[in-house]
Write a structure and sequence with these properties.
Shape: globular
Number of strands: 16
Distance between the termini: 64 Å
CATH class of the largest domain: Alpha Beta
CATH topology of the largest domain: Gyrase A, domain 2
Radius of gyration: 20 Å
CATH superfamily of the largest domain: Probable tRNA modification gtpase trme, domain 1
Oligomer: single chain
CATH architecture of the largest domain: 2-Layer Sandwich
Length: about 300
């Protein structure tokens, strides 16, 4: 376990959802099947606008009759407010998880080291009381920890959030609102289908119509991908446009995780301008940007060239 790092995530926190109606309440609101979030399995899910645009994403797992929602601290109040609007007479209590600590152990070896199978979402309580679950999206990403008050984290060397962001970005995993623009991004542009964050058989939920139409009509026109960056006068910033060789708009940068000398980040790439090995130019700073789809990503087959008459 010496090569593993325990990375506290101060930008992530816990909302608790208790009450007899907790599962049925959330089931009609989020993209995944909430009945699959148990004490043995965590899931990834999203809350959408009624028009089907991304608003929040989070991990869900159950502990002692309470659903734990691991979400962004900076947007926790907004998520709580949005969910609370739908409570009506539902028997649920939604509250911040006071005193909880969130951490992650990045890496493909983290599951085995912490006594978990290398299966997305696999969950167990560690010695010391921390709740550990394999990343529900991709097992090789690592293991997430929700540590309640009084529990003890695993005895590992300390890393930081940047160590985790590097790992997640290299695998093409979005990191909430920094990578998926609220009220604009679509789930299937950001890997929710391949990474198990949406269930197409669960029935209706808010925003379901657009998500289903995007899938069945093949309307995905762009994808979030890892990128490498080289050259340029400065780092591109979030929202910086990417240009193809002919000057056409080919996407936009969502995040730059490391210095430009290391060149790592995530960008939304227009599929019409993408081909393996293509290079783009960041309008902000002039860096050369190379998109690299991860192995899990399923891209549409290239359209055949029209036959000459």
């Amino acid at each position: 376990m010496t090569d593993l790092l325990l990375c506290p995530l101060s930008d992530r926190g816990v909302l608790t959802l208790a009450g007899d109606d907790r599962v049925t309440f959330l089931q009609g609101l989020v993209s995944n099947d909430v009945t699959k979030a148990t004490g043995e399995k965590a899931i990834w899910a999203a809350l959408l606008t009624p028009q089907g645009k991304y608003m929040h994403d989070f991990f869900l797992v159950e502990r002692e009759g309470t659903l734990l929602i691991r979400c962004e601290v900076a947007r926790m109040d907004d998520l709580k407010t949005r969910l609370s609007r739908f409570k009506l007479r539902s028997k649920v209590v939604l509250a911040p998880g006071e005193g909880w600590t969130v951490a992650v152990v990045p890496g493909a070896d983290a599951a085995a080291a912490l006594g978990l199978p290398a299966e997305p979402g696999a969950t167990r309580i560690l010695e010391g009381g921390a709740l550990a679950f394999v990343d529900p999206r991709l097992a090789e990403a690592g293991v997430h920890l929700l540590i309640p008050p009084g529990a003890i984290a695993p005895a590992l060397p300390r890393g930081n959030g940047l160590d985790w962001r590097r790992r997640a970005a290299s695998l093409g995993l979005p990191d909430g609102a920094p990578d998926m623009e609220p009220d604009k991004a679509l789930l299937l542009e950001n890997g929710f289908e391949e990474l198990g964050g949406v269930d197409f058989k669960k029935g209706c939920y808010m925003g379901q119509e657009l998500t289903a139409r995007t899938k069945y009509r093949g309307l995905v026109k762009k994808r979030l991908m890892p990128i490498t960056l080289t050259g340029g006068e400065a780092l591109p910033t979030t929202g910086s446009l990417l240009r193809a060789a002919d000057g056409s708009e080919a996407g936009e940068v969502r995040s730059v995780i490391t210095g430009i000398e290391e060149g790592q980040g995530l960008a939304v790439i227009r599929l019409a301008q993408f081909s393996p090995g293509v290079t783009l130019t960041a309008e902000d700073g002039g860096a050369t940007v190379t998109p690299i789809p991860p192995d899990w990503m399923v891209l549409p087959e290239p359209k055949p060239e029209p036959k000459e008459a």
